[in-house]
Amino acid sequence: MFVQFTTWDIVRNLLEGGKWTLALSLIAFVLGGTAGLLVLFLRMARNRVAQALAKGYIELFQGTPLLMQLFIVFFGLPLAGIDVSPWLAAALGLTLFTSAYLAEIWRGCVESVPRGQWEASASLALGFTQQMRHVILPQALRVAIAPTVGFSVQVVKGTAVTSIIGFTELTKTGSMLANATFQPFLVFGLVAAGYFALCYPLSLYAKSLERKFHVAR
Fold first, then answer.
1. Taking the C-alpha atoms of 74, 77, 78 and 80 in order, what is their torsion angle to the nearest 10 degrees?
2. Contact 110/137 with Cβ under 8 angstroms?
3. Which Pfam families match (predicted)?
4. In terms of Cα–Cα distance, which of 196, 187, 105 is closest to 149?
């Protein structure tokens, strides 16, 4: 039986899918940021083993496609006896991906802080964690805000890949609607408009932050 879809029906369903795209992006960014901060501390630690582990972690997730990472989580964990839903696999895969990139972005920001700040804080008998918390990170934050917001655009666009493992976000919803309505140009045009509506404001905000904090000079 053929079901007639109006343009509003298509838009309404895409808005529902967009809601899950936004939710997944927020979860991946918040959890990825938390994990990325931990990786950053390991990457900047004076312990060579910790540095090597953090560097290997970053290179692993930066050097492999996000799609492969999602496949390993979604199909690999069940082989180990851990059942995962598409929602959990998507959140975990994107969190790991985001944490690696944010850790490397933030490392560059931390290293932009003049070496004299490290030496001055060390002369006050501050430990590594205290140096990072009270001296280095507050200064690095000024530089990190713009690229961090900019990377959030990549996280939003990265959610589209999760449609491959069955997570019903904006792209997956669009694919199902295109098959049901036989109007792929209309449907995927609206999908593209949805991603643009999510990403463009973030891009503008990142640029405004660059100007505000004068990090481009």
1. 170
2. yes
3. BPD_transp_1
4. 105
- Pair 164, 89: CB distance under 8 Å: no
Instruction: For residues 66 and 76, give the distance between their C-alpha atoms in angstroms, rounded to a whole number.
Output: 15
Question: Residue 5: enclosing H or E segment and its boundaries?
Answer: none
**Residue 8, token pair as written in the block:** 């509003």
Whether 183 and 12 have beta carbons less than 8 Å apart is answered as no
* Full set of structural domains in the chain with CATH: 7-213 (1.10.3720.10)
Report in angstroms the alpha-carbon separations of 149 from 16, 25, 32, 146. Answer: 24, 12, 13, 5
Give the whole-angstrom CA distance, residue 35 versus residue 154: 17
| Overall residue count recorded for the chain in this entry | 217
Measured distance CA(100)–CA(82) in Å, rounded: 23
* DSSP codes, 94-119: HHHHHHHHHHHHHHHHHHTS-HHHHH
Q: What is the chain's alpha carbon radius of gyration, rounded to the nearest angstrom? A: 21
199 or 142, greater pLDDT:
199
**CA dihedral angle for residue 147, residue 151, residue 152, residue 153, rounded to 10 degrees:** 120
User: Tell me: the pLDDT tens digits for 34-58?
Assistant: 999 999 999 988 889 999 999 999 9
pLDDT per residue as tens digits for the range 13-30: 999 999 999 999 999 999
